[in-house]
Amino acid sequence: SGINAEYGATYHMADANQAEGGTFWVKTLAKGVSTIGGLLAAITGIFVVISFSAKCVAMGIFMVAAGICVLMLEATMCFMFLDIGKWLDSKSDKIKSWQKMFFYFLLCIPGPAI
Known about the structure:
- This protein is an all-alpha fold and about 110 residues long.
- Helix content is about 80%, strand content about 0%.
- It contains six helices and no strands.
């Protein structure tokens, strides 16, 4: 019965980890994809800013800001040289996946709205 109790406890811990945000590989893959997306948004935002249209300049600035926000949540090691870096590192892992997803969804709204 001791083996069954240990297996049951292990099984329940695995369920809790998966219910909270997935396995290690899923979290790592999501963090990697988000980091690449944040970098691409910031880099393409720089190119969009170089324009003659006021809308393009505004959206370029927004894209750079959105890319930096995503990087602040996902790749905190990029901001360790700032005072806020250590604070970001301690807080970013505590944010639940659905909260990050909702924040990323809100970042997508201004583009089509303009």
